[in-house]
Amino acid sequence: MGTPLDTRDEQVAAVLDRLYEEYPDSTISLNYSNRLELLIAVILSAQCTDERVNKVCADLFETYETPEEYANAPQEELAEAINSITYYNNKAEYIRSACADIAEKHDGEVPDTMSELTELAGVGRKTANVVLQHGHDVVEGIVVDTHVQRLTRRLGITEAESPTKIERDLLDVVPQSDWQQFTHLMIDHGRAVCTARNPDCDDCVLADICPSAKPDADVDLASGEAW
Ligand code: SF4
């Protein structure tokens, strides 16, 4: 088991230093060419891999371009176009409804505030944060997805369980200038090394400061259960 640094600020600083070194080009892995495409890709990415979303969006973005086109697409037609994505029926409904609101209430533009974004169907704080950061260059918070949730708990940076509470904890200890990159670094490390089922602690640059590091640690702090 690794030994975390004395304070959470120090722990975060060390994690950031090392992961910046490991993943110098870390960034969002969804493909999009405008804010509407970004919003749609992020809605589709909930509980689905970015790889699959990119594949589906390559055709989807050729078929539909404007908010009106999505809003006016028949539910079955849009669902069919995204049917390899998890929860495609619900997501088709969200997209049609969100795009109707964008067309009618926002002059066809994807809104640029947290409150307006989270009023759109299918858009929670996480989706809104991604759209604000990558679509509008507004960094209001830290995106907490499943990788951020797992890694921050494993690394002893938070003990909170819900994404909302984890974000609150992180905002206190992650320097504001790193809010955006923090998420991408966690996602890259979560995909490459600290995977959900079988993290490769032997080959992890954080092992000496990670209280969950196998084989010495008995418990995975992300789940609270024995490894
Ligand atoms: S791979 Fe292992 S040592 Fe590295 S952060 Fe994950 S649990 Fe900790």
From TrEMBL:
It catalyses: 2'-deoxyribonucleotide-(2'-deoxyribose 5'-phosphate)-2'-deoxyribonucleotide-DNA = a 3'-end 2'-deoxyribonucleotide-(2,3-dehydro-2,3-deoxyribose 5'-phosphate)-DNA + a 5'-end 5'-phospho-2'-deoxyribonucleoside-DNA + H(+); Hydrolyzes mismatched double-stranded DNA and polynucleotides, releasing free thymine. Belongs to the Nth/MutY family. CDD domains: ENDO3c (cd00056). Its EC number is 4.2.99.18. It is an enzyme of class 4 (lyase). SMART domains: ENDO3c, FES. Binds 1 [4Fe-4S] cluster. [4Fe-4S] cluster binds at C194, C201, C204, C210. Residues 44-192 form the HhH-GPD domain. DNA repair enzyme that has both DNA N-glycosylase activity and AP-lyase activity. The DNA N-glycosylase activity releases various damaged pyrimidines from DNA by cleaving the N-glycosidic bond, leaving an AP (apurinic/apyrimidinic) site. The AP-lyase activity cleaves the phosphodiester bond 3' to the AP site by a beta-elimination, leaving a 3'-terminal unsaturated sugar and a product with a terminal 5'-phosphate. GO terms for biological process: DNA repair. It holds the Pfam family HhH-GPD. Keywords: 4Fe-4S, DNA damage, DNA repair, DNA-binding, Endonuclease, Glycosidase, Hydrolase, Iron, Iron-sulfur, Lyase, Metal-binding, Nuclease. It comes from the Archaea. The gene is nth. One of its GO terms (molecular function) is G/T mismatch-specific thymine-DNA glycosylase activity. It comes from Halorubrum pallidum. Its cofactor is [4Fe-4S] cluster. The keyword Kinase does not apply. This is Endonuclease III. Gene3D superfamilies: Helix-hairpin-Helix base-excision DNA repair enzymes (C-terminal) (1.10.1670.10), Hypothetical protein, domain 2 (1.10.340.30).
